[in-house]
Inverse folding.
């Protein structure tokens, strides 16, 4: 779903439209060998190299003025190993196609994010996650990966093979090489029952620990300028399947969540003074509902209203205090925020630069409608997140530099040392990586 310009102009743009790049050339390799040859050729020509996914990052993590590698032909499932409970998939495969193909085979990922337009390598490389008490990000479900390194060689990584690369490359930011295939852990297809219901901000924050403990997947949205939240609990179910009805899906998921919400944002952008009133209406528009379906139909939903986003992971124990500070800041400011604040959780994992590396985490995501000035809001919110040892999502807007990350990632030096070894000439470097990883 990247909004890529035509090949003639040579301009690449991300989904949100806030990042563009003009590479010297771009290639769409049809095999790992072709990709490796393109990397070697770029080295001979002195060009830097970046692979792009679907453009769903808000940062310039994939931007390059050198060689742009498009993954459009590196798609599909390579193999399914039912005995091991794994699927190996080409890096350019969109999550949507993977989810549909797995369901057809009676299989599913354990957890996923809330959209599925991204490629598997783009989503995992930036640390895309959903919400989970016990199950972590998409990258935490990787059991092996294949990586083309700066000299054009192909490296296979897993807990047994090149384990130090595996520890880092699952969320590698494109800094260690080009991921060409990923092996995910999968399980037999299961059902989830989703329960969506409105709650007040005070109710959710005062009972958050219980809501988190009692549900496999709990998340909520708080609407600024109101005391209203929408909550969602997803738990495994014995069935039967009771999907959202077609009319309900059209009305709630398309008409209200996308159509009416788009109009409300357009009005809010034109006349910011109307936003608090619109927020009260938006926050009450969705009614309680319960439905049961296969995982990807419950975890993910269409997002057609474009926006810019910042998201920080704070220690889970600090969530409620952080959120209350964010609300107090908005309440006493002149800011007018038309987008809800999204809150999710993740257990600790063992990935070097995962936002949940070594600690149980809670995510707070803030958004502004596309074309609306976001700097004042994001700056004020970021100040609060940083005070609570926040780690920014690698694919979402933030102002942090390597200096900050050294202090909040205990294994940061481990990642940069590995980068020095695998890409000493910074073939896969760009301005964003220089800022967040250092020169």
């Amino acid at each position: 779903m990247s909004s890529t310009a035509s090949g003639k102009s040579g301009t690449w743009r991300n989904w949100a439209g806030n990042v563009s790049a003009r590479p010297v050339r771009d290639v769409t390799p049809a095999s790992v060998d072709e990709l490796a040859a393109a990397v070697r050729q770029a080295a001979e020509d002195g060009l830097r190299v970046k692979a792009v996914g679907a453009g769903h990052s808000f940062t310039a993590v994939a931007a390059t003025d050198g060689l742009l590698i498009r993954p459009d032909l590196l798609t599909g499932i390579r193999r399914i190993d039912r005995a091991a409970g794994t699927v190996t998939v080409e890096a350019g495969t969109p999550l949507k196609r993977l989810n549909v193909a797995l369901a057809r085979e009676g299989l599913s990922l354990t957890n996923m994010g809330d959209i599925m337009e991204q490629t598997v390598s783009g989503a995992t490389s930036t640390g895309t996650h959903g919400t989970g008490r016990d199950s972590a990000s998409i990258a935490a479900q990787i059991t092996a990966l294949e990586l083309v390194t700066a000299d054009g060689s192909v490296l296979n990584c897993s807990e047994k093979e090149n384990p130090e690369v595996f520890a880092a490359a699952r969320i590698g930011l494109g800094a260690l090489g080009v991921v060409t295939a990923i092996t995910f852990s999968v399980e037999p297809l299961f059902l989830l029952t989703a329960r969506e219901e409105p709650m007040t901000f005070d109710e959710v924050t005062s009972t958050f620990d219980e809501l988190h403990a009692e549900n496999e997947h709990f998340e909520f949205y708080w609407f600024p300028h109101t005391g209203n939240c929408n909550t969602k609990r997803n738990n495994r179910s014995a069935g039967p399947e009771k999907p959202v009805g077609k009319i309900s899906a059209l009305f709630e998921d398309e008409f209200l969540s996308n159509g009416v919400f788009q109009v409300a944002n357009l009005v809010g952008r034109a006349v910011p003074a109307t936003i608090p009133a619109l927020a009260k209406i938006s926050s009450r528009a969705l009614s309680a509902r319960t439905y049961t379906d296969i995982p990807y139909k419950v975890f993910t939903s269409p997002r057609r209203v474009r926006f810019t986003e910042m998201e920080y992971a704070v220690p889970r124990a600090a969530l409620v205090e952080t959120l209350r500070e964010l609300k107090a800041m908005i309440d006493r400011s002149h800011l007018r925020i038309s987008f809800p604040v999204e809150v999710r959780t993740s257990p600790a994992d063992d990935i070097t630069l995962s936002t949940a590396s070594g600690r149980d985490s809670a995510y707070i995501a803030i958004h502004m409608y596309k074309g609306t000035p976001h700097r004042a809001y994001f700056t004020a919110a970021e100040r609060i997140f940083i005070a609570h040892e926040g780690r920014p999502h690698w694919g979402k807007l933030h102002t942090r530099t390597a200096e900050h990350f050294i202090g909040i990632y205990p294994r940061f030096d481990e990642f940069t040392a590995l980068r020095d070894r695998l890409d000493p000439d910074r073939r896969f470097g760009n301005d964003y990586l220089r800022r967040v990883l250092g020169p």
